[in-house]
């Protein structure tokens, strides 16, 4: 389990995550990223770049209003355990270490890259982001809003059938 804490050293940097149709066996910073990654936009607003000799087309997916993405760095630090009047109940449950993840960046859009053309709405990453947002809204909806969420789901199903 993770507990997210804002970075204490500075304000999180602004970034844009890029989802690539490739597997890269590297996890960490690159000293000269512009040597390998130079996307540009055409007149229609579609992003284009070459990566390892292949032309990629990017579709920018903005996060909904009032949503913020977070870039996290998981640390080895753990949250202190609280002891209180429920100590007996807690002992019966298996204790789980809660690691601290520090927020090092934030984003308000994601770029999904694909081969051979613009990424469509039926792309697994695009669908995953849209489904996660609907799931999150349903989980955090108040009782009055739940009927609106259900109605929105039904509308979404009807729109999918029309396609």
TrEMBL record:
Residue stretches of biased makeup (Acidic residues): 87-96
Organism: Sporormia fimetaria CBS 119925
UniProt region (Disordered), positions on chain: 1-48, 77-96, 137-163
One GO process term, biological-process aspect: RNA catabolic process
Recorded GO CC terms: ribonuclease H2 complex
Residue spans of biased composition, Low complexity class: 1-15
Record InterPro entries: RNase_H2_suC
UniProt cross-references to Gene3D superfamilies, sorted A to Z: 2.40.128.680
Identification of the protein by name: Uncharacterized protein
Compositionally biased spans, kind Basic and acidic residues: 150-163
